[in-house]
Amino acid sequence: MARGDGRLTHDLLPGESPPQDACGVFGVWAPGEEVAKLTYFGLYALQHRGQESAGIAASDGHRLLVYKDMGLVSQVFDEASLGSLKGHLAIGHCRYSTTGGSTWENAQPTLGGTDDATVALAHNGNLTNSSELRDLLLERHGDAFARELGGELWRGNTTDTALVTALLADDPDRSLEATALDVLPRLKGAFCFVFMDEQTLYAARDRHGIRPLVLGRLERGWVVASESAALATIGASVIREVQPGELIAIDQDGLRSHRFAEADPKGCVFEYVYLARPDATIAGRSVHEARVEMGRRLAMEHSVEADLVIPVPESGTPAAIGYAEASGIPYGQGFVKNAYVGRTFIQPSQTLRQLGIRLKLNALETVIRGKRLVVVDDSIVRGNTQRAQIRMLREAGAAEIHVRISSPPVQWPCFYGIDFATRAELIATGLKVEEIRASIGADSLGYIGEDAMIEATGQPRARLCTACFTGDYPIELPDSSLLGKQFLEVLPGLESQAPGGLDIEGVGTGVSGGAADALSRP
Ligand code: SF4
Fold first, then answer.
1. Which of 133, 139, 208, 365 is spaced 20 to 30 Å from 8 by Cα?
2. pLDDT category, 107, cuts 50, 70, 90?
3. Given ligand 1 and candidates 23, 127, 269, which is best to mutate, with the most ligand atoms within 8 Å of its CB?
4. What is the pLDDT of residue 98?
């Protein structure tokens, strides 16, 4: 599918938004360095993981400041704002919303605590026991806990991250490290946290290690980031992954590692298929290599006589290379991507909107005309993108179009930090492969098998989450009424607490964008 690369993406194709990456997190502890700028460039490298809002918190050891806003990293920060974020430690976040709507109040890093003991928190993932955490705060502080605690919840933040921030700031008599070791084992679901107080940088990863988080070294400091590419971008070397169930603390006393839960790895297989950058390495496996191997396996499972293999750029490229290599069919570029069209807040006119996919991709007619094509993409969500691409290729003179997909049919929603369409909207929920082929207008359609995809990752099946393909969720899910993007906005104790009140018009449990309705609908 065409990768979502900016706000305009959804307006171009309102009926087809790609899976939205969870979020990107970054943290640095480096005395003598311009940590806000390091964080800015680190977030830039992680921009593909979240494009709705961005923020940085920095501390000089005495004062912690947070700057955040809606938009891409390059739109939120300039020299002046980065210059105001002084200090020797910083954390950063770029967000795509999973729990809680896309609003300024929900942007991160979140901020909690008192003048003496502050916590700023950045989160990648999605918790599955947020209602239990809210109940814990209710138990401790009563019905008006948001008012009593102040901070993010009172400011109108409706995310699971705000609940964790409140819990981390809930015991001013203990160190943040001690409180974290009490709070982290209570959390269920997927989380990679990067957080800080005035002196110390922390990083924590859930016991299943669903989302990636790596630790790196600068000459004069330490770095943590969602993907290794962010370390390379700022000249840091990779030391190792933050282990599932591990809390790391970094300050002037050095690095301390604590285990807060027993590791039970279930890494997200979709990181290998689509989410992570191709230059990332996850659990020792190069993501690019995994994708090329998926393409090779796809060619073995779904061979076809054809003249040219073309990728849907950029996400289909490595698998197309692998398909061409294994099939012996030449590889070429059949699409040209309009790389910068998504990177704007300017809304397209109605006329432009009708062009849909053409604003993002053009077909290279001289390459395509008269050819039997194999078109390789990473996944199909609703099918609208593929239908539009196939129409474009036929108009450009393609003789035959054989679509090959380097992941199995996506049939189930993700509750661990990726926002797919609801189950009813996923084309593979209601249709068989042959029906999907007819619906998108291809001459043939082949998906890679589940086993081949898993083998290409180099990981044992038991250490992976494959739930969006299999419906086999490795972390227990709560009742469907306690799932969904906006469910915290309608829970007692959390609705409309901000002084200005929240805009919750039209919001109910299971509105689209989350996945609550996905389990109950056909
Ligand atoms: S459900 Fe899919 S996207 Fe979500 S964590 Fe599991 S494999 Fe990844």
1. 365
2. confident
3. 269
4. 62
Q: CA 109, CA 56: separation in Å to the nearest integer? A: 6
HSE-CB at 384 with a 13 A cutoff on CA atoms is: 14
Q: Measured from the CB, is residue 465 less than 6 Å from ligand 1?
A: yes
Smallest CA-to-CA distance from 93 within 71, 108, 110 is with 108
Q: Which residue segments constitute the domains of the chain, with CATH numbers given?
A: 20-127+156-266 (3.60.20.10), 276-470 (3.40.50.2020)
- Spatial distance between the Cα atoms of 192 and 85, rounded to a whole number of angstroms: 23
* Residue 225 CB contacts under 8 Å (≥ 6 apart), including other chains: 24, 25, 26, 27, 42, 45, 46, 213, 214, 216, 231
- pLDDT given for residue 147 in this prediction: 78
Provide the whole-model pTM.
Answer: 0.87
pLDDT in tens, 122-138: 999 999 999 999 999 99
Shortest-distance atom of ligand 1 to CA 19:
3
Q: What is the mean pLDDT of the chain?
A: 85
Query: How far apart (Å, rounded) are the C-alpha atoms in residues 181 and 186?
Result: 9
Give the residue, by CA position, lying nearest to ligand 1 atom 4. 414
